[in-house]
Amino acid sequence: MRRIFVVAAAAVLAFPAVVQAQSSASANLTVSADVIKALTFSATTATLPFNQRAAGTTATISPSAGATFTADGQASQAVTVTFSGGSLTGTGPALTFTPNVEGSSNGTSGWGAVTHNGSINLSGAGTYFFRVGGSITIPSNQTAGTYSGTWTLQIAYTGL
Amino acid sequence: MGRGAAAILFIAGVLALAAGDARGQAMSGGHLGVEVHVANGLSVFRERHLSFGSAVAGTGIHAVPVTSPQAGLFRIWGSNNAFVDVTLSPPATLSNGTHTIPYAWAAASHNSADDPATATVRTTTTFQVRQQGAVAGPNNNSWVWVYGSVNLGASPSTLSGGSYTGVFTISVAYP
């Protein structure tokens, strides 16, 4: 009997490391989030100076002579552009501003038309350049006075 | 190695019982019961990473619920009915090497089914589970889901874009 217990004890003691190694374990996983840089504009307001115009004409400012905005965000991301507003109110019936927007990824070349609900791609540096002109058709019987309003260009990452 | 150790212990138990029988033939009375409980080796596996996907900086809190396929998942394998101490070591923040974002961890466990919808929510980093696989043997599993939320702050945000990561560690041990 004593001899048997000695054998049993020896068997257990011969493998202490193996038994202990099975009694605990660990693992890990990666927690991740892909953060997209927030979209910003270098300037958020600008004025299109149509100045004094005669009734019965169409006042026009070309994009190259208009207001400029530079967008900044995550490199190469697709962005959806939307327009809103554009009604000018004053002393008479409201006038309508029709925007003419062009965009370029480098700000120096490759200017192309940008439309409402259109999609653009930010450059590899995460920038995009807009220039905004437009026109206002003034009826011949429009009441003289000052007309003003706000037109807004918005950008948002496509699909986010 | 684990099976080898279990086999040795089992032989020891058989030898002890045999000795009791032999003594019973040579001497009157006296019995010795020998019981050896051999536990299966304890393992924990990463089944799935936790991903919050893509989100824009400055858009506040983004959460992944326990039932989301984006939730992280560990599987603990051990002896059926065995108690297992679990220790979680979640990261406090995720980093892209330049900036960090806070991570609020959450976890839940289930000791009999891979079913996050009926898992027990865990609010402490240490807790105990009891292995209750539906079938003895290879199904002696418990599951631990890790999920939670990240806070991308308010707008305007100066967070740089990129992949923010952290390491979530689980440790398990028999008591």
Description:
The complex is a heterodimer of chains A (160) and B (175). With 160 residues, chain A is mostly beta strands. Chain A is 12% helix and 44% strand. In chain A, the strands form two sheets. In chain A, strands 2, 3, 4, 6, 7, 8 and 10 form a seven-stranded antiparallel sheet that branches. A three-stranded antiparallel sheet of chain A has the order 9-5-11, with no helix packed on it. Chain A is elongated. Chain B is mainly β. In chain B, 14% of the residues lie in helices and 43% in strands. Chain B has one helix at residues 2-26; strands at residues 43-48, 50-56, 61-64, 72-77, 83-89, 93-95, 100-110, 120-122, 126-130, 141-151, 162-173. In chain B, the strands form two sheets. In chain B, strands 1, 3, 4, 6, 7, 8 and 10 form a seven-stranded antiparallel sheet that branches. In chain B, a hairpin with a 4-residue loop joins strand 6 and strand 7. The longest helix of chain B has 25 residues, at 2-26. Residues 1-27 of chain B have low confidence and may be disordered. The interface between A and B is large, with 36 and 67 residues. Strand 1 (24-36) of chain A pairs parallel with strand 2 (50-56) of chain B.
Element-level helix/strand string of chain A = HHEEEEEEEEEEE
Number of alpha- plus pi-helical segments of chain A: 2
Order of helices and strands of chain B: HEEEEEEEEEEE
Q: Whole-number radius of gyration of chain A? A: 34 Å
- Arithmetic mean of pLDDT of chain B: 82
Rg of chain B is 24 Å
Quaternary structure annotation: heterodimer
Strand content of chain A: 35-45%
State the separation between the terminal residues of chain B, measured CA to CA. 21 Å
Q: Largest interface, per-chain counts?
A: A-B, 36 and 67 residues
As residue ranges, the low-confidence spans of chain B are 1-27
Mean pLDDT of chain A: 87
Shape of chain B: elongated
Helical residue percent band of chain B = 10-25%
- Derived from helix and strand composition plus strand pairing, the structural class of chain B reads mainly beta
Please describe the biggest sheet of chain B, giving its number of strands, its sense, and whether it closes into a barrel.
7 strands, antiparallel
Count of DSSP E strands of chain B? 11
Q: N-to-C terminal Cα separation of chain A, in Å?
A: 75 Å
Low-confidence region ranges of chain A: 1-21
The biggest beta sheet of chain A reads: 7 strands, antiparallel
Q: Which bin fits the share of residues in helices of chain A?
A: 10-25%
